[in-house]
């Protein structure tokens, strides 16, 4: 298949698959009232989900004008086009290696009042190991980090680096917003950055655990 055709066909297939899977889920959401409280305080939100759990948030956050971050790779192009079909606005790049330009773009968007979503272990891993870019971003913009977790009663787990989770249509699903993180410090030492980065990973994992407990027995 020609490159240009792939860039059109694959995002369209992904969009249709989203409709066929996520739109049919029996979804339960925990702690969504936190989001309204944060916005009432005049702050922006940085959602943080593991890369392998992106499928449900991508659909649940559709048409809200949220900002997503995708790599400049070929896969990043596919994801960008697919998410735009769901009403996302996109920034290309990374918050890890060589990501200063991407961080500046995200800072500008947040200062306009936008909310963003990031995968702290993306775009290449290690799986479920948070990187520090989200911490810098929250500190520079006085935003609130909202860790999130997802679980499905029935799913297909792909043999990819992130063990990507694709729900089976009509299965039960849970989406949990965990305990928030705010960086109330003007100067972050390396020790503090490591502390908050580890804390973020723990809070995302706790959100995932809570979502799995909400689903219960998957047998």
Number of contiguous helices: 7
Element pattern in H and E: HEHEHEHEHEHEEEEEH
| Outline type | globular
Q: What value does the average pLDDT take?
A: 89
Instruction: Report the sheet with the most strands, covering strand number, pairing sense and barrel closure.
Output: 8 strands, mixed
Q: How helical, in percent, are the residues?
A: 40-55%
Overall structural class, as computed from helix and strand content, comes to alpha/beta
How many strands appear in the DSSP assignment? 10
- The unreliable regions are none
The amount of beta strand, in percent, is 15-25%
Rg? 17 Å
Euclidean distance between termini CA atoms: 40 Å
Explain what you see.
By secondary structure, the chain is of the alpha/beta class. The protein is 42% helix and 20% strand. The protein has seven helices and ten strands. The chain has helices at residues 3-21, 33-40, 55-60, 74-84, 100-111, 133-141, 190-215, and strands at 26-30, 45-48, 67-70, 89-92, 116-118, 144-152, 155-157, 165-167, 172-177, 181-182. Strands 1, 2, 3, 4, 5, 6, 9 and 10 form an eight-stranded mixed sheet that branches. It has a two-stranded antiparallel ribbon with strand order 7-8. Helix 5 runs parallel beside helix 6. The longest helix is centred in the C-terminal third of the chain and has 26 residues, at 190-215. The model has no long low-confidence stretch (mean pLDDT 89).
